[in-house]
């Protein structure tokens, strides 16, 4: 059993385990799929740990996406020099972005813009401090979460960004996270179809005499599709740790589970029922009860329900299970699961000798 830890008796539960050797294998696989480290803009929202950012930097990856100001601060502190905050920054977050830029003057830190009002707010705020805002135009090509639609107004916005006094436009951000078909060929067809209008927009930018933009496309589901598009940059995130949800769905992406939850049986309240100390504070609970965790060392079971600190499971082999037994589980969705923990136990050679802080789970580090 690759996942069993020799000194598991020393760990409290529930605990987040990170298998360092598997993390490195996943980093290497990401690079292999992309064809080079240059094409990767890896999202740190999955891991939120400076040590994993450093592992990617040591492997040659130099560009990163972040979802929050705190993630960007963590990533810059770890040594990264190229960051994109892939979120719409409004209100006080624009001031925080400026402070982040001032704290890390030698780090490229860009944000996303998808409307004229946001462009004006950035331009004004950055002009007041004598800086230029580095931005990407966020493009909505079907997910309908953020971004400007690919309509007859989008070129006008791109031109405005190109000619604003305190804004520098670097490219397009095209996130098609809604395309998650299990069959790779079907998913690729959907990604390609959704990219047709992006190509037309790129042609319009060229016809307007503007510089050719950098294009960052997709997340983890579309990674293997966009990797085939030679001039496109890819931004997977979940691949670094992997999870049950994508592991079952994206069969062509052969990544290894590198993050598990360790939990213990704390009660056997009724024949056929066991209770573990893994409630919905210990594993992401946004999905239905049957899509939260998959146990690697338990068979013929069903997770019946969770409360804050308890998980109730029906089991077939009730007599063989003892109170205190350790279970190892793969989260269905690893990104928000990691965000539930302050620290992770690091597994090397079946031993726990290190603890890493989940530094960027904070909404604010120093800025």
Automatic annotation (TrEMBL):
Coiled coil: none annotated. CDD domains: PLPDE_III_D-TA. Residues 258-348 form the D-serine dehydratase-like domain. Belongs to the DSD1 family. It comes from Emticicia oligotrophica (strain DSM 17448 / CIP 109782 / MTCC 6937 / GPTSA100-15). Keywords: Lyase. This is Alanine racemase domain protein.
């Amino acid at each position: 059993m690759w996942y069993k830890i020799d000194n598991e008796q020393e760990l409290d539960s529930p605990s987040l385990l990170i298998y360092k050797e598997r993390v490195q294998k996943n980093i290497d696989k990401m690079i292999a799929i992309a064809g080079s480290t240059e094409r990767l803009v890896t999202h740190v929202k999955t891991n939120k740990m400076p040590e994993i950012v450093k592992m990617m930097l040591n492997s040659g990856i130099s560009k990163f996406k972040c979802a929050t100001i705190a993630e960007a601060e963590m990533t810059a502190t770890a040594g990264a020099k190229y960051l994109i905050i892939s979120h719409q920054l409004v209100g006080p977050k624009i001031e925080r972005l400026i402070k982040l830029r001032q704290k890390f003057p030698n780090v490229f830190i860009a944000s996303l813009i998808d409307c004229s009002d946001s462009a004006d707010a950035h331009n004004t705020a950055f002009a007041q401090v004598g800086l230029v805002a580095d931005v990407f135009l966020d493009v909505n090509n079907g997910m309908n979460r953020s971004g400007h639609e690919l309509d007859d107004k989008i070129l006008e916005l791109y031109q405005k960004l190109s000619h604003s006094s305190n804004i520098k436009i670097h490219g397009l951000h095209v996130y098609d996270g809604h395309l998650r078909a299990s069959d790779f060929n079907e998913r690729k067809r959907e990604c390609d179809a959704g990219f047709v209008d992006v190509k037309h927009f790129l042609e319009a930018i060229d016809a307007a005499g503007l510089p050719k933009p950098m294009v960052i496309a997709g997340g983890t589901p579309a990674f293997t599709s966009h990797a085939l598009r030679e001039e496109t940059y890819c931004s997977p995130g979940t691949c670094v740790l992997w999870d049950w949800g994508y592991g079952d769905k994206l069969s062509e992406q052969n990544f290894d589970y590198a993050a598990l939850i360790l939990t213990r049986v704390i009660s056997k309240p009724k024949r056929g029922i066991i209770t573990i100390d893994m409630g919905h504070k210990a594993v992401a609970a946004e999905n239905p009860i049957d899509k939260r965790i998959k146990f690697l060392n338990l068979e013929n079971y069903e997770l019946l329900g969770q409360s804050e600190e308890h998980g109730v499971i029906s089991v077939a082999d009730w007599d063989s299970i003892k109170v205190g037994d350790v279970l190892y589980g793969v989260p269905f969705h690893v990104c928000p699961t990691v965000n539930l923990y302050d620290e992770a136990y690091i597994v090397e050679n079946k031993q726990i000798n290190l603890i890493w802080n989940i530094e960027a789970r904070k909404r604010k580090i120093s800025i």
